[in-house]
Structures are given as C-alpha cells and as structure tokens.
Design brief:
heterodimer, A: 81% helix, B: alpha/beta, four-stranded antiparallel β-sheet, 26% strand
C-alpha cells in the first residue's frame, strides 16, 4: 500500500509541476539567461579574447576549435544551472501544499508518514531528470547542428551520469532546505535569489577564476561548482583536445582557467573527486532529511 | 475500504483527559500578549460523541477546538490523555483511526487543472479503495450532490459552491464512519455556507457521525444533537443540546457559562 501511495503521490506532484507551464519556464530561466547573454555578447567577447590570446602565442587560425570550446562551455553552464533551478522550482509543490493545507489531507490518509515527504523528494528528482534530459538533448543538438560535435560515447555517458548524480545531489540538499520554509513568499525569495546568483557562483556567466581569490574559495564549498566541473569535463574535452593539437600549453591553461579542475586548497580536484563530492553531498543531505523527518514526527 | 459502523447508541469518538501544550515563539508571545513561553491549548478535555449524531465543539477563538480536532485526526499527539475513534486509539493506532475518519475544513484545497473525477480517484487510491467500489461511490456521490455533470470539468472552471461540494465529497471518498469538520462555514458566503450545512445534514441522513468545531451559535442550533462548550482549553459544559441549554438559547447559555468560568463579561 505504501509503495503504491508513493507512486501515486510522486506522479501527482510531477503532474502539478509539469502542468504549470509558467513554473517550468521559470525553472529554466537561469539557463535561458546564460544562453541569451552568450548569444548576445558573452560568446563573442570570449571567442575574440581566446583567439587574440592564441595569436599572441604566434598561432594563426583555430577559430572553429575556439568556437566549439566556447559553445561547449556555455552549454555546460546551462546544464549545471538547470540541475539546480529545476529541482528548486519543483520543490515549490511542497510549499504550495503546506500553505493550502493539502499536506494535512495527505497526512490523514492511511499511509505511513514517510510516504508524503518521500514522494516530494522523488517528484523533485523526477522533474529534475526529465527537464534536465530535455536540456541535455537540446545541448547535444546545438553542438551537432553547429558542426561542433566533438563528444565521444564516454563523454555522452559521462554527461548522463553527471546529470543523474547532480540532480539527486541538488534535490536532497534543496528538499532539506525548503522543508523548513512555510510561506510562499519566503520560498519565492529563495527562488529569485538562487536563480540570480547561481549562474555566477558556478561560473556559468564567466569563469570562476576571474573572481577574487576569496570568492573562488567560497565557490568550492558549493556543490553546484562540482556539477559544473563535471559537465565541463565531459562537454569540453573534445574541443580542448582539438585546441591541444594547436598548442598544448594553451589548452592546459584553458583547463585550469575554465575550472575543468579545481585547486582545492592545494589539492587538485579531478572528475573522480567531483563525483565523490556530489555523492557525499547526496548522502549527507539524505541523512539530514531522514533525521529532520524523525525529529518532526517526535515534535 | 468501508469502515465498520459502530452499533446504535455506541460512542464513536471518546476523548479522555486530553492535554496539549505548545511552545510559543517570541512573535507568538507578542501576539498573545503573554510572557509565558508555553501555552496550554487543551487542558484535561473529555467528551464523547455518539453514532449518527452531530457533535459540536463550541468556543471562542483560541479555546482549543482546532487543537482537539487535530488530535482526533492524528495530526498531532496529545501530551497526556488519549482519544478513541471507532474504538481505535489516536496515539497507538493512528493508521486505523485515519481509515475511519474524513477530515475537512472550509478551505478549498483543489489544484486548478485537475478534474473532480481525477481528484476523487486519486484520494480514493490513496485510501486504498478498490477500483470497482471507487467507481460505484463516485457515481453515487457525484449524483447525490449534483457533481456528475461537472465530473470532467477542470476545477478552475467550477463555481465556488460546486468547488466546495467537490472538496467535501473528495474528503469522504473512503466512506469514513466519522467526519471531522473544523469550522465548516468559516469565511464562506451565505450560499456556499448553505451547501456545506446541507451536505452535513445529508451525511447525517447517510448514518455518518459528525464532529465539528465552530464559534457560530446558529450553526450549533441548526445542526448539532450534542454540544461541548470549550473555554480556555477546558470543557465547561457537555451534553445534548437541550440539556445544556435548558430554556435558554445556546447564545444566552454560552455567555452565562463564560461569565461563570472567566468571572468576566465576554
């Protein structure tokens, strides 16, 4: 009975999220802003800057490689934002149900208490994966359509793995945070603030290395930075290899400047470590969600 | 999943010495104009409601009516004491209690893009009602309350009165023996309030036992067989309406009791 109720509630929550077109649009606002800024001017500025740097090293050409590198960087930023903002918007159902007393109705139905919060979590993950998969498909189509497809099969699988782990990780964290919110106003404030700053904090608008040292160190404590790191590694690897054929030193410089690896207080954080960090965040916040549910039940 | 109805004249709800205290935040202390960090919401409350009757908990705002109903609905646990719904303890057998009750408020809790039919099926499945039984109940209840013509119309396109009916019918999808209704007509316009009171009388005719909270005297006079007057979390009077009121109206009797308990005019 509890398993069936979990499935029913998850489906209901997902339906509510997906049927609200405005909510789905706003969940993708941050990635769309990244895309718009890139198309309008950031892309051009970045490509010109990188080409000038390449020319400064005495290397002519490389326009296609730089364009592929820039586009991949922008798309990795869009994906990383979507992995955070979509689950966040999907958490809105928790607040909506609380504010309208629907949670109370659900708690009165003869299913175990854990089912309702578990269904919220499952629907947040499902929404993140569904919308994230569509965004990822759009990214792939973008790269293929513009003739910049440089991804191998492991890269594609890596992107899918990064999507799954990032959505689960951000969902456990966001469900925990949002479970303390009671009013729609407070949640909207969180949504607006996070939606605005997330692009900067994970380096979607500009590389994190352009920020002051203290800000850079701060971003290393944000799980979204590791999500962005993973997507960059998988989406930009092919383009970076092409650039390496022109100038290995230049490619190596780009790798650290565009945060494909982090220097976490002297320790280099690569792909495996990024996966571990995201998995650890998911495990810690899953534990905290369970603990909070137990404490709430006792209270 | 139909709940077994208790035998005639049987107590369907029995509260025994319920006590519930809440911790007040600083903001709540300011609003309540008190320096105490804890508030006793319900203080040794005992009463019983019989099968097939409407029992009204009458009291001013903050008297402890909603807290009592929330304890009976298993939403919160009492600090001490216990309550029984159809013989099941709210503290020890909350799942069985939830099987036996329907909990309603006057607030509308329906998502605008779902249809009455979907909502009925959803909450029916949540309560574990068999598919055939659910289909039959939907047909019966929708016809009885005039929802059948609007079964597939989206909630956002329904009138307020129809919305209220849908909300109420969805709350009894699992055919509960006991219906608990917190402030049934609070904030409703006269037409929608009539929909609700007619609905409650219809439920009574269907043999349901109803427990409601209110601060509206006319509602008690119109609907209730028994009344419990709560003041400051304590039961000040309890019994059949005519026994509690005697020759007085419920309003006169309430204020007489209030003066006696509080030693002051309301």
């Amino acid at each position: 009975m509890n398993g069936y109720a979990l499935w029913l509630l998850t489906r209901r929550n997902l339906k509510i999220f997906l049927k609200d077109r405005a909510n789905v649009f706003f969940s993708l606002l941050a990635p769309l802003i990244v895309l718009a800024l890139y198309v309008l001017f950031l892309g051009r500025i970045q490509e010109d800057g990188l080409l000038a740097a390449l020319e400064g090293m005495g290397i002519q050409g490389g326009g296609d490689q730089i364009a592929a590198f820039s586009d991949s960087w922008m798309l990795a930023g869009c994906m990383s934002c979507a992995c955070i903002t979509v689950p966040l918007c999907a958490c809105g159902i928790m607040i909506q149900d609380k504010a309208r007393g629907i949670t109370q109705d659900l708690f009165i139905s003869p299913v175990a208490r854990w089912v309702t919060p578990a269904a919220y979590f499952c629907s947040v993950v499902a929404a993140g994966l569904a919308i994230g998969a569509i965004v990822l498909a759009v990214c792939f189509v973008w790269l293929a359509a513009s003739g910049m497809w440089l991804l191998s099969l492991p890269d594609v699988l890596g992107c899918i793995g990064a999507l799954i782990l990032s959505v689960i990780s951000s969902s456990t964290l966001l469900v925990f945070v949002v479970s303390f919110f009671r009013s729609q106003g407070a949640f909207t404030a969180l949504n607006v603030i996070l939606g605005t700053v997330v692009g900067f904090l994970i380096g979607a608008y500009m590389p994190i290395t352009y920020f002051p040292d203290a800000v850079q160190k701060f971003t290393y404590f944000i799980p979204g930075s590791y999500t962005a790191g993973l997507f960059r590694n998988f989406m930009m690897r092919g383009a970076l290899e092409e650039i390496a054929q022109l100038s290995p030193a230049f490619a190596e410089g780009l790798r650290s400047e565009f945060s494909l690896t982090f220097d976490f207080f002297g320790a280099e954080v690569g792909i495996a470590a990024m996966f571990v960090v995201l998995a650890a965040v998911a495990a810690v916040f899953a534990g905290l969600n369970v603990l909070a549910a137990v404490l709430r039940k006792k209270a | 999943m139909e709940t077994q109805l208790p035998a005639e004249d049987e107590e369907v709800v029995r509260a025994e010495n319920l006590r519930k205290t809440f911790t007040l935040s600083r903001k709540q202390q300011r609003l309540e104009r008190t320096s105490f960090a804890r508030k006793v919401a319900v203080d040794g409350l005992s009463f019983a409601a019989q099968r097939g009757e409407i029992y009204g908990l009458l009291g001013p705002n903050g008297a402890g009516k909603t807290t009592t109903l929330r304890i009976l609905s298993t939403l919160i646990r009492p600090d001490t004491g216990d309550a029984y719904v159809c013989g099941h303890s709210v503290t020890r057998e909350p799942q069985k209690v939830r099987d036996a009750i329907g909990f309603m408020t006057s607030e509308l809790k329906l998502e605008s893009f779902f249809t009455p039919s979907y909502l009925f099926d959803f909450f029916g499945a949540m309560h574990g009602v068999e598919k055939e039984t659910l289909a039959q109940r939907k047909q019966d209840l929708f016809a009885r309350f005039g929802i059948d013509r609007f079964a597939e119309v989206k909630v956002r396109d329904l009138s307020t009165g129809m919305l209220q009916k849908v909300s109420l019918v969805v709350s009894i999808v699992h055919d509960p023996a006991v219906v608990i209704f917190d402030e049934p007509t609070n904030g409703l316009d006269v037409l929608t309030a009539k929909v609700v009171t007619d609905f409650l009388l219809e439920l009574k005719r269907m043999g349901k036992s109803i427990l409601l909270s209110t601060h509206i005297f006319s509602l008690v006079e119109k609907l209730c067989d028994r009344v419990g007057i709560i003041i400051d979390g304590k039961m000040a009077a309890d019994g059949k309406l005519k026994d509690v009121c005697g020759e007085m109206s419920i309003e006169e009797r309430f204020f007489e009791i209030y003066r006696t308990v509080r030693g002051e005019e309301a």
